[in-house]
């Protein structure tokens, strides 16, 4: 008999029971490693109105959804899922400062430009192959810290220095790439 996936509502209820807190009042909600895994982000997440950090890492989620009511969300952690695009992220674009979405199947960055306050973007080990997609990050003026290693685009460069030079030249606003500070000539 196959196990039914955990719903966001069930995961939230489990979290409340374990923490003895009301999820709607909490600032940090961690729903990673659910068993059975969560497969869909749904409207139950919109009840988390005070949540500033939401972790749904290490589940089986295939798309971003259900977060429109999260008016205070600053950090969203979706690493190690099956997400294929950033569609749905725009509903939290005004508040989101950090997006941790490494180890997914994202090959396009369409929609990333809506994230005007995004400072930290961890998107390593996805499937981005083209500079045209990478260049969309130029639309994120607040971006300072980018982890992009493990994407085909990065891996297809002749060496790490070529990658770092190309990436930092394209994204003048970043100060850290793949965990290493960027040193720019100031003259």
Automatic annotation (TrEMBL):
Gene Ontology biological-process annotations: outer dynein arm assembly
Keyword Cytoplasm attached: yes
GO annotation, cellular component aspect: axoneme; dynein complex; microtubule
Record has Repeat as a keyword: yes
Compartments in which it is found: Cytoplasm, Cytoskeleton, Cilium axoneme
Pfam family membership, one: LRR_4
Highest rank taxon of the organism: Eukaryota
PROSITE patterns with a match to the protein in the record: LRR
Primary location group: cytoplasm
GO molecular function terms attached to this record: alpha-tubulin binding; dynein heavy chain binding
Keywords: Cell projection, Cytoplasm, Cytoskeleton, Dynein, Leucine-rich repeat, Microtubule, Motor protein, Repeat
Entry's family note: Belongs to the dynein light chain LC1-type family.
PANTHER family (alphabetical): DYNEIN AXONEMAL LIGHT CHAIN 1, NISCHARIN RELATED
The protein's name in its UniProt record: Dynein axonemal light chain 1
Organism: Parnassius mnemosyne
Phylogenetic lineage: Eukaryota, Metazoa, Ecdysozoa, Arthropoda, Hexapoda
